[in-house]
Amino acid sequence: MKELTHYIGGEHVKGTSGRFSDVFNPATGEVQSRCPLASSEEMSRAVEIAAAAQPAWAATNPQRRARVMMEFVRLLNRDMDKLAMALSAEHGKTFPDAKGDVQRGLEVVEYCIGAPQMLKGEFTDGAGPGIDMYSMKQPLGVTAGITPFNFPAMIPMWMFAPALACGNAFILKPSERDPSVPLMLAELMEEAGLPKGLLQVVNGDKEAVDAIIDHPVIQSIGFVGSTPIAEYIYGRGCANGKRVQCFGGAKNHMIIMPDADMDQAADALVGAGYGAAGERCMAISVAVPVGDETADRLIEKLVPRIEKLKVGPYTAGDDVDYGPVVTAEAKKKILGLVQSGIDQGAELVVDGRDFSLQGYEDGFFVGPHLFDKVTPDMDIYTQEIFGPVLSTVRAASYEEALKLAMDHEYGNGTAIFTRDGDAARDFASRINIGMVGINVPIPVPLAYHTFGGWKKSMFGDLNQHGPDAFKFYTRTKTVTSRWPSGIKDGGEFNFKPME
């Protein structure tokens, strides 16, 4: 059995806690490796090394730090297939989807090449008699990130790339379900020229998370995961005086207006609802057609598309639409929520409960499900399913559809499909959700904008990547400077030597 490691001080280090977590191949259900779960002492050692390495990195000028990012981008492109294959083997997502995971992280690294521009301060000449005023953006010191299983390449890079570009050290605690790619990324960063000790990968569970939250040297924490854990980390981290950004759950609605191109809307829902087996925080899990006629037309378009979806292992290549979910526990939870939908009166239009794949009977595969006539009091509507399940909630009017999305506790992403510009503008203006798509089903912003939800989908003041990342990973220091004049009335200089 392969035993994975931590990556501390530029070396692969075996775990010493004696505790491990099994890492599965989701396609076969087999345990393929063991991931060490760090103790608080192991975390403290990583922080100590990071703290020793950080001052010299902070003193390195931003342009040189940016050059490391440039080389890292080259290495990511070189090893794209290798990273994607390792990611698919542990997560289960298809190979093209895994490459997309790496690519979206790479794009944030590309943005961080602009660190010299993003880290410039402000200057006011002559703010008063002989007084100048200027600001400096300085790194926090040692920073940390706790990342989820569903994007084991992208989200770590969303965090550590801007943190390092700003001159910080970074402690990464990735998901113990698919930890291999984060370890590979740390190796590539050092191959790109990052000094040892600045990017540490410490695997673990709640003990490691609590060690990050409570360690006095760690200045900031980024987190992506479920809302209950986001609330826990945010509350405890802030109480410990840290800067914290935590991204939680989602229940993303897509409103389909009567004038929408129904083929376009159906294609968008299938891709956004079932891609990556629904294990995306930006997946569309609720379709809201306006009017029964619209709903009937939409269901008619959706059913044949969903029934044609190909579910299989990543090794099948481009011939598969989505793969297994990450663990047996995830599969059990998804099917339990499907059953609750049936019990609570929703109409199961496409039933994927009996899905089985020959030769992969022990894999964590879940067939696609489509519900109609879902109501807001049902568990499949209130809870984040994180699986290939699409719920249809019929709305009698645009205002009712808008209210559904606005009243839900989550506010990560949403979309509207319409040909009406007035409806689209009104929707974008009024909706209380952080990321909005207009005829775009998964409105994930590009790297030079920021990513972040509202309500119980996000805790903190600053979003991920884009300009907010450089604000999150720096402190602003403002200097007011006054120099006594050395000029006599006659215009001659009269500087006295310093004693």
Automatic annotation (TrEMBL):
It comes from the Bacteria. The keyword Oxidoreductase applies. GO terms for biological process: L-valine catabolic process; thymine catabolic process. PROSITE patterns: ALDEHYDE_DEHYDR_CYS. Keywords: NAD, Oxidoreductase. One of its GO terms (molecular function) is methylmalonate-semialdehyde dehydrogenase (acylating, NAD) activity. Pfam families: Aldedh. This is methylmalonate-semialdehyde dehydrogenase (CoA acylating). It comes from Roseovarius litoreus. Its EC number is 1.2.1.27. Signal peptide: none annotated. Residues 13-479 form the Aldehyde dehydrogenase domain. The keyword Thylakoid does not apply. PANTHER family: MALONATE-SEMIALDEHYDE DEHYDROGENASE.
